[in-house]
Every structure is written in C-alpha cells, then in structure tokens.
C-alpha cells in the first residue's frame, strides 16, 4: 500500500494533467513566441560581447593589450618562465577565492575538494531532501533563505575573486633589500639572488612573505619557512615536485627554473627565519 | 465511369503532402513534431520559464561556433617555425586576426561560454524557486545538475586551448587541485594530463575532451532533459491563482477545483 503522501501527490499530478488538458494553451505559438524572443536576445548579447571584446582592445590586436573585457590573448604559454597568475575564468572565481579561506596544510583540502563535493552532492539531493509538495515561496522559508545565502555567498566570493590584488614583480623586487635586512641575510649574495627570483617568479601570487603577496589557493606564509630547518636539499626537491614531497599540494612544479636558480631560491627560503 | 479528375489544387496538395506522409508512415516523426508543438502548457507560464530554452540556444551557439573554430584551430604545443610561437597559440592569433569574421566566431565562443553558464545558473534558480524539481520531476533536476557540471567542465577544458600564459597556469593549478581529491584524484589528474606532468599531450587531450567527450554527453543529456519536460509538462508559477494542479489540495474551493483561465472559479467558500 502506498502511503497517503504518495497517493496524494499522484492525485495532484493527475489533477495537473487534467487542468493543463482542459484549460492550458498550446506550446506553439504562445510559449514558443516567448522562447524565440528570449533566444534572439541571447544571440544578440553574445554577438555584442564579441564585438565589444574586439573593438575595445587597443592596438592592432597583435599585442596583448587589454580592452574592456580583457585581453584577446596573453603571451604564449611558456612552462619555463614561472611568472604567472593562476587565474581561472570568472565563473570559477568563487572556487578560486574559496581556497583563500583555508590554510595549508590542514584544511586546504576542504576548500579544494571538500566544499565543492558537498555542494554538488547537496545539489543533486535537493529533490529528495525537500519532499513536500508545497511550492509557494512564503511557505518554504528554509528553501528561500538557503537560496538567498547561496546567491549572496557566491556573489561575494566571485566579487572578491575578481578584485583580488595581484602582486607586481617590479614592486616586489623593490622589497628585496627590506627583506634581507629584516631576515638578516644581507651578507648572503645567494640568498639575495634567491629573493629576487622569489619576487619575480610569481611565488607571491599564492604565497605571502613579510606582508606581501596574494595568499591564494591556501598557500602558506613563507616568512619563517627557514625556521623549520628542513634543509636546502628538501627545498629543492619540493620546488621540483611539490606534490611528491607534500602529498596533496596544488602547487605547480618549478623545475623549469633550472638547478642553479632552484639552489638560490632554496638558500633564500632557508635564510628566512621569520625576522626580528 | 466515375474516375473524377483531380483539380489542380488537389494535385498540388497531394504533391506537397506526399513526402510528409511518406516520412510519417515510415517514422512517425511528423506526429512527434506535431505533438511537441501543439502539446498543452499551463496558461499562466511566464518569461522566467524561457531561461531553459535560452540556455539551449546559448549551447547551440557554442556548438556551431565550436565547429567553425575546429576548422582552423590546431591543438599542438610544438613551436611553429614561422612565428616561433606554439602552433595552438599561432592558430588562435590567425583566427582572431586573419580569418574572415574569425574574431567574431571566436568572440562568440569565448563569451557564449559565459552566457551559457549564467543562463544555466539562472534556469536552475528559477526551477528551485518554482519548486519545479518536486515530484514527479526529481530525475530532471538531477539531469540538469549533470548538465551544469558538464558545462563547467567545458569551461575548464576550453580555457587551456589558446595555450597562452593565463590558460596554461590556470590549468596547471586546476589539474593539481583535481589531483588532491582522495582516491580518484591522482588518477583523474593523470588522465587529464596524459602523463605525470602537464605536457604537449595534455593540450590534445583537453581538446578531445572539450569537443567530443563532454559535448556528446551534453547533447545526450539535453535530449533526455527535453524528453522529460515534454512527458511531465511545465509547472505553473507557484504564486499563480490559476495554477494547474493545485485543485483542492491546500486551498479548497467551493467547486473543488481551481480555475486556470478564470481566477474567479477559485472563490473560497466560507
């Protein structure tokens, strides 16, 4: 015997079918007219965006200058030069920014995998969590509040992701003498060369160092990395393959810098004891 | 004796109808299309309910512009001897600057992706607020979520294809994040990269996933999605006073059913 609730919802759906049959209107032309108008608007918006993208880009379009909607293209991919900003397309900004909230190494997996997976499972489960037949908004306070919170948090995360400041290599380079003084490695030319590489190679797009840097993707503060005394050999192997040393690290490999540069970077990191 | 000759009009009608009848007799397609077009929908549906077909339109724009781009795009990370830049990157530049209306097709594909994803989110919001995922439409909600995930997958794989710095490094980090997932993560990362590191094979692999695997899945899922929409019907807005199917469920009316066309039929008896 099906329960009362199941009998009731079957009856309601039967009623729905009868109501539509008796008093509905045909899809063509009524609904189809609305759909067609909307589709035309969509195509016009897409074409308009394409036109704005091209015609607001200054120069002859062979350069990488940015127009209102961003660059037509960036410099070609070069696994060897490491100065990059790991920035996804805008509709992934909420995920991208979510990773700033979590701190490596303990909880960053919550941001990378945990929360997105939970969100996806919840999304799939909605029809089975909310089994009432009620559809009127005023009588679904939980659903309404949940949807407002989701929209707000996605909006805020997207906005924060879009306006997240990127550290500029040239500005960071000017900080190197200050770093050397604070950390006390002014007399170590290898560490200073490493600090310059550190400033130029985009490390601070994710990491923070003495108040500079991006703190993206849950990357840790490296101001006192050397205080852990892990050794230069460890630092080099970590830079070559972060995930091999630190299981689950989303940091890309910096093997492309070459052995010499890696040694400089490692010396700099080991000399960073957190300052006075 | 009574072999009446057909008039010209009748002859013309027969000539036009013959191929349609021929097709109908052998496939039933004509009846299917008629059923699709002339099926009844509730009289109170509104503009919010066009978001689904708008997302479909955006997807079709992506499919069409994608086919055109595939005619010119070359998924190779090797260095072009003429431009001294990666071939994929050079082909994107070629499309943007040299091919007739190439900039328009590429721009439409680039921004159509954003429009497609926004429309899917808006459509999902509409379905959620209308409570349209409830019995008997649960399965269609699930298919919709899978479509959204596939759309985001298209966004992720397509982002790499211009093979510029932004694309490359966003993908490196994206794959590394995939790799952090428990159990499946490392395998997924290796599958996406076609190796332990991101390399030249990664590009052709992303290209294949982007233009064959996921679009195939999306077409199939859209087919199922629309089949269920036609089979189960479209819901009335929940606030509608003439909503189909409300009947005497929560607001009993005197004559036992609500009016779809004339709201006055739902006067409450005291």
Tell me what the structure shows.
The complex is a heterodimer of chains A (276) and B (270). The longest helix of chain A is centred in the first third of the chain and has 29 residues, at 27-55. Chain A is mostly helical. Chain A has 11 helices and 5 strands, in the order αβαββααααααββααα. In chain A, strands 2-3 form a two-stranded antiparallel ribbon. Chain A has a two-stranded antiparallel ribbon with strand order 4-5. Among the domains of chain A are: 27-76, no CATH class; 169-271, Orthogonal Bundle (Cytochrome Bc1 Complex, Chain D, domain 2). In chain A, strand 4 and strand 5 form a beta hairpin. Chain B has 270 residues and is mainly α. Chain B is globular and about 75 Å long. The chains are: A mainly alpha (276), B mainly alpha (270). Chains A and B meet through helix 1, strand 1, helix 2, helix 4 and helix 5 of A and helix 2, strand 1, helix 3, helix 4 and helix 5 of B. Strand 1 of chain A pairs antiparallel with strand 1 of chain B, so a sheet runs across the interface.
Keywords:
heterodimer, A: 276 residues, mainly alpha, Cytochrome Bc1 Complex, Chain D, domain 2, two-stranded antiparallel sheet, 11 helices, 56% helix, 4% strand, elongated, B: 270 residues, Cytochrome Bc1 Complex, Chain C, disordered C terminus
Summarize, please.
The complex is a heterodimer of chains A (276) and B (270). Chain A has 276 residues and is mainly alpha-helical.
The third-level CATH topology of the domain at 169-271 in chain A is Cytochrome Bc1 Complex, Chain D, domain 2
The radius of gyration computed from the alpha-carbon positions of chain A, rounded to a whole number of angstroms, is: 27 Å
Assign the CATH class of the domain at 169-271 in chain A. Answer: Mainly Alpha
CATH superfamily of the domain at 169-271 in chain A: Cytochrome c-like domain
Class from helix and strand fractions of chain B? mainly alpha
Which sequence of strands runs across the widest sheet of chain A?
A: 2-3
So how many helices of chain B? 9
The total of beta strands of chain A comes to 5
C-alpha termini separation of chain A: 76 Å
Which CATH architecture of the domain at 169-271 in chain A?
Orthogonal Bundle
Strand proportion of chain B, as a percent range, falls in under 5%
Strand count of chain B: 1
- Looking at the structure, what is the overall shape of chain A? elongated
* Bulk shape of chain B: globular
CATH H level of the domain at 47-234 in chain B: which superfamily?
Cytochrome Bc1 Complex, Chain C
Assembly state: heterodimer
Number of helices of chain A: 11
Portion of residues within helices of chain B: 55-70%
**Helix- and strand-based class of chain A?**
mainly alpha
Largest interface: A-B, 90 and 98 residues
